[in-house]
Amino acid sequence: MDDLIQVIEGYSEIQFIVSLDYCSGEEDVFSCSQWADLYTQLGQHGNNPLILNTDPNHEIWNMFAGSTYSAYAFIDHNMVLRYKFDMPNLYDFQYTYIPALVNEMYGCLDSTACNYNENAVYDDGTCQFDDQCNLCDDSTNQLDCMSIEGCMWMGDHCMQSTDNCMSLDSELDCINAQGCYWMGDHCMTGSNCTDPIAFNYNPTADNLGESNLDDCQYSSFIDFGCTYIDAMNYNQLADVDDGSCEYTFADINNDGIVNVLDIVELVSIILN
Q1: How many CB atoms lie within 10 A of CB 223?
Q2: Is the pLDDT of residue 61 over 80?
Q3: pTM surpassing 0.90?
Q4: Tens digit of each residue's pLDDT (9 = 90 or more) over 204-228
Q5: Is 197 domain-assigned?
Q6: Residue 160, in any domain of the structure
Q7: How many domains does the chain have?
């Protein structure tokens, strides 16, 4: 939980709240300030989260918890329970759940715009008016959607497309065209990005071995850098290691001699 709080503290849009629910006896009951002091003293990052006082009737637990202590629940800006876990995976929290929730908070807040987003709470400057508007969004069925130039039907909705690959009807023509991929029964443009944490990750390119990481596009909330604390250029703000770490060979094991044993110690540090 300590690492999760550290991640969330990097987002002004998210608040981490601890609900005190369980105690085995009166002697175990701590005040909110005492719990906060424990976080500061024992937490790896000196966290001091917002703490709700004891919930004697277990209302919060019954609404949001899983089956074990501790439990984690994500409530979005519309007060909808989105995720709940007994044992969180920090990587998924950091690169999937949190960015997804934060991205949904942004949109056009001008009610006169054709792309007004009533569920957004932060304006992202994307409002469109009059001739800027996307006619595809107004189509509610596949027949109307496909009759409008530049629109494509995506399962249950119509969306704008500048995809030139869609004009290719055969699988052979599709796979021979630069940047086009055959997606079961139709041809679509796809990137050559094979990094799963990127927005434009293309598993088809991954399977075909057509990787080009320069095509990858990432969330603005992800910081790349050296994440190994013992490296010369360690970046404490980095979320994902980019292979840039630099090391200096020295007497790492403090035996008074610089030799191959120091290299073994260095490898051990990197692997851990």
Answers
A1: 14
A2: no
A3: no
A4: 676 767 677 777 878 777 888 898 8
A5: no
A6: no
A7: 2
